[in-house]
Amino acid sequence: xxxxxxxxxxxxxxxxxxxxxxxxxxxxxxxxxxxxxxxxxxxxxxxxxxxxxxxxxxxxxxxxxxxxxxxxxxxxxxxxxxxxxxxxxxxxxxxxxxxxxxxxxxxxxxxxxxxxxxxxxxxx
Length: 124
Prior knowledge:
- By secondary structure, this protein is mainly beta.
- A hairpin with a 6-residue loop joins strand 3 (33-39) and strand 4.
- Strands 5-4-3-8-9 form a five-stranded antiparallel β-sheet, with no helix packed on it. Strands 1-2-7-6 form a four-stranded antiparallel β-sheet, with no helix packed on it.
- It is 0% helix and 44% strand.
- The chain has strands at residues 3-7, 18-25, 33-39, 46-52, 58-60, 68-73, 78-83, 93-99, 111-116.
- It is built from no helices and nine strands.
């Protein structure tokens, strides 16, 4: 069975940066949409970033727009999330995921595969 293996999480100070990597094993990252959502205790799941593979267009939640950048490397079958200017509000477990629809508000309702990575911790 195909899997998504995420790495790159950890502790970073406010204003710092992290890069998350998500390697697909056993399948190609050619779904309609690929992206990242996050979960924090006491908060609803939030879709942060998404890339529509057909045209390369991206979608970002307002909470991360301008700070996060999603990308993909087909040769490595890996997607990345560059996170800059991190805030304490960004503290969460981040999941990389693939979906059956193009990126948009409803992208995270139609997930195909997903996998968590090490928690991203940003102290207050």
